[in-house]
Write a structure and sequence with these properties.
alpha+beta
């Protein structure tokens, strides 16, 4: 059901510093920041030959990743994003198998302009999973 790894998301306390580190220290192609108010984050994508890294930091006081950064002040891996061919079919199959879809269960538009859903980390070995329609 899952397709290719779309990105690895890393929550960071300082988006500018993390972006500069990837750009200068690692020599990566770093895209400009983009606010994602529906998700409460600002993101920066880093292009790699085989996938992307998504740096994310809180956008606003009630950002869902603020709690993550409170527990991990230096930041850390926040989630993995996998592509799926049909997000609604994937959602229904996962729910039928007992997986919990976060939020309302209805896809939201993600940073790539495509529908996304998040799956509860307790159902996937402690890892928050994002599904993005390919």
């Amino acid at each position: 059901m899952i397709g290719r790894l779309n990105h690895v998301a890393i929550a960071v306390p300082d988006l500018a510093a993390a972006s500069a580190q990837y750009r200068t220290t690692l020599g990566a192609v770093v895209r400009p920041p983009q606010d994602e108010p529906d998700h409460g984050v600002t993101v920066v994508f880093i292009d790699l030959p085989n996938t992307k890294i998504e740096l994310l930091c809180p956008l606003g006081a009630d950002s869902p990743i603020r709690g993550f950064l409170d527990k991990n002040p230096a930041g850390g891996i926040h989630h993995l994003c996998y592509e799926v061919d049909d997000i609604l079919t994937a959602r229904d199959r996962l729910k039928a198998e007992g997986a919990r879809v976060l939020g309302s269960g209805e896809p939201k538009i993600g940073a790539h302009g495509k529908p996304v859903l998040f799956l509860h980390p307790k159902d996937f070995n402690g890892c928050l999973i994002e599904l993005e329609q390919a």
